[in-house]
Amino acid sequence: MVNFSRFYTQTLLASKQLGAQGFQVGSILLASQESVLKPFEKERLQKINEKEIVLTKSFSGRYARGITNKYIQMMENSEHILPYPYQNKLTQKLRRISKALNNVDFVSIWAGQSIHHYSEQSTENILKNLIVEVESIQ
Hints:
By secondary structure, this protein is mostly helical. About 40% of the residues lie in helices and about 5% in strands. Helix 1 (about 5-15) crosses helix 5 (about 125-135).
């Protein structure tokens, strides 16, 4: 069973106790079997630390939390970032080619606010394990 960070288990438990009917868990699924991330992106995701997570508009023109790389570092403080959707369209080919070449320096790898071990199990197993873990601490 995957041991999720305290962040997820405590936040999910608190949300449930406050009467929430749902909970967003997107970032825990980033490395799942069903994820569209390629193996080189999943590998990079497994090696991040909190200092490497930045809020950036460099790929899309809208703020998103992602793993810093050469492209973000070059663009972030420049005056060359267009508003969404123009920046997103402008960087689309760069991201597609970089992904095909397994080049982590020019792809956007988004990450949530909680860094942990990202499981490569199926989404179904990840979610079931999260539920079991939360229910075991109630």
